[in-house]
């Protein structure tokens, strides 16, 4: 399976990192080795002093598809979830300055937290509220209403480049409020009041 991630999909997050608003979705991949095994703590990697959490709504692809039109995208997923795209912001900044790829900053071991999945029919996907709590304080408070590109548009866009396969996961971008993690932090992700994950940082 592969993990396809979207960057810069919420205007306020683009502003907080002083990034340019893209003409098209920013896309990058994480390998399956990036997945943080269930219930494992997240270990801050030795090559970074500034690892950020980014809470994101996840889409689990349910069948093979390519060149999917937006209007048919709903047929390619049954479940949505919540996760974290851990990012070594200092490494990413160096990559950006040199115009280099982001993988070292985004695709390292443990960088993909994948929480519980839920039946999409139980939610209004255009108005999905989700939060990240750090040590019981809300640090990110997002809603899919604020996405620049909606879920079905993202599926259509990425499928022009990559054949989607059953089990692939799309990270749909993070809202504002990203920040640094420190040892002993506890991160909890909620989606519409349901606890999708809890991670301890070490
Ligand atoms: Zn992200």
Summarize the structure.
This protein is of the alpha+beta class and 202 residues long. It has 4 helices and 13 strands. It binds zinc ion (ZN).
> Kindly state the mean pLDDT as a whole number?
97
CATH arch. level architecture: Alpha-Beta Complex
CATH topology: Fumarylacetoacetate hydrolase, domain 2
Helix content: 10-25%
Shape: globular
Query: What small-molecule ligands were found?
Result: zinc ion
User: What count of domains describes the coordinates?
Assistant: 1
The CATH homologous superfamily corresponds to: Fumarylacetoacetase-like, C-terminal domain
Oligomer: single chain
Radius of gyration: 16 Å
Characterize the main sheet.
6 strands, mixed
Q: Biggest sheet: strands side by side, in what order? A: 2-1-10-4-5-7
In terms of structural class, how would the helical and strand content be classed? alpha+beta
Count of alpha and pi helical runs: 4
Gap from first CA to last CA: 27 Å
Beta-strand percentage? Answer: 25-35%
Low-confidence stretches: none
Q: What is the string of helix and strand elements?
A: EHEEEEEHHEEEHEEEE
CATH class categorisation:
Alpha Beta
Number of strands: 13
